[in-house]
Amino acid sequence: MLNYDKYAPYVFWCYGIAAALLIGVVAWSVLRVTRARQKLDAFEKPDGEKGAAK
Amino acid sequence: MAVLSLFANPHRFMAISKPFAWGFTMLGGGMILYGVYMGLFVAPADVRQGDAARIMFVHVPSMWLSMFAFAFMAGASFVSLIWRHALADVAAKSAAPIGAVFTALGLITGSIWGYPIWGTWWEWDARITSVLILFFIYLGYLAVWQAMETPQKAARAAAILCLVGAANLPIIHFSVDWWNTLHQPATFFTEDNNAPYGFKVPMYIVALGYLSLFGGLTLINMRAEIMMTRAEMMMQRKLAAG
């Protein structure tokens, strides 16, 4: 189906690296905003509400 | 100016930005997947480059985005220096790591494409070298934010570095015209753009997907930055109160 002949390894490496980098930057951003939200909640909410809805 | 003023209030920004942040990110992801599908399965092989031309669908839009992201940062830095807009620095700082990732992606995929087509992984020609310099400016910009004692000093130094670094953008764009480079001249956004639709459509879809993803991730990181700043302020207030 994906028969790219002698160029196949170059094409697949490029798309693989692109996927890894883009998934990585999305995961990093989501992790960052989640941690920031948890940190802020720790100060804003009274003790009983900690860990509740984000 | 009215739009700039509207978003000058972090509270208002936080209230408005959430659906846009996640919406743009998901829209971007979907468009990239569709563009990649078209690039790998639908687009025909190039008559001269064969299937190696499929690398262009990830390489070229990432280079466009790397320059767009830096221009966005330069614009935000300008607004920060001139009008002291409360969120301009946050916007520039949040866009920087995402722009750096797209620049790295463009450099890596360009290098992998270059080996089968040019016979070399790397060539110190004007276009490739100026993009490498852009990548180092991104890293320098991020380092300035880490190195300064206070966020205010860091914001000012980073904004100046960004505006100076923006001089590299026209050099990147016109490098293929000003110097005799191994890198080919611009194909898209020119008067004699004769690339076939089968090639243009996936390219533009991936480019719009990258743009949407950049917008979404910048908003997500801006939200994270504002929340962290607010948490820091609350912690300092608590410490001061004993």
Note the topology.
The complex is a heterodimer of chains A (54) and B (242).
Chain A: H1 8-44
Chain B: H1 2-6, H2 10-42, H3 56-83, H4 88-118, H5 126-147, H6 151-165, H7 168-178, H8 197-241
The main pleated sheet of chain A reads as: none
Work out the count of structural domains of chain B. Answer: 1
What proportion of the residues of chain A is helical, as a percent range?
55-70%
Q: What radius of gyration of chain A results from the CA coordinates?
A: 21 Å
Question: Which pair of chains has the greatest number of interface residues, and how are they split between the two chains?
Answer: A-B, 32 and 40 residues
Mean pLDDT of chain B: 92
Described by the principal axes of the CA atoms, the overall outline of chain A is: rod-shaped
Strand content of chain A: under 5%
Strand count of chain A: 0
Fraction of residues in β-strands of chain B: under 5%
Radius of gyration of chain B, in Å, reads 20 Å
- Please tally the helical runs of chain A, counting DSSP H or I stretches of 4 or more residues: 1
Low-confidence stretches of chain A: none
